[in-house]
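Researcher: Here's a chain I'd like modeled. Treat it as a single chain, no partners, no ligands.
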Amino acid sequence: MAALHPADWIILGVIAVSLGLGFFRGLVREAFSLTGWIAAYVVARLFHTSLENLLVDSISTPSLRLAVAWGGLFVTTLVMASLISYLVLSVIESAGLRSVDRFLGAGFGVVRGLLLVLAALVMVSPFASGDSWWVNAKLPKEFLRFESVGREMKDKVVQAAKQVGKKETDDGPAAAGNDK
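Model: Modeled as a single isolated chain. Structure tokens:
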């Protein structure tokens, strides 16, 4: 096997770091972290208008009111997800399943690392395709064989995010005439 290019080592390093983080944090913490961030965005997106309306008497500046509503909902949801994660992790540890959690977390970390590398390479490829590091590195070409899968996944995520926005305008407070 030919020697790896430094860019290949960087790619392997990103995957290894993600694997290590996944292992040490475990699947439960990793999953609740990811779910917490997604839930925080969804909650803030769906309910910020209602909270803004409740804050009208307390905060007169509209932009500050929006920031407090979004930020408050976002942070509160993240804290709640963290507390739930802590409770679930306590149960897992008391059941003696921490090693299984860590093993599954390592798998999660590998998948996350692969997706991060793929996303980075897809973004860089239009600009770097003629650079010597790009031509000489082996792994970018291998990863980009999965570019269509990555783009399809991205499209599904974007569509799901648009559905959250559509839900707000169809069923949320804005439908009652409270556009901000």
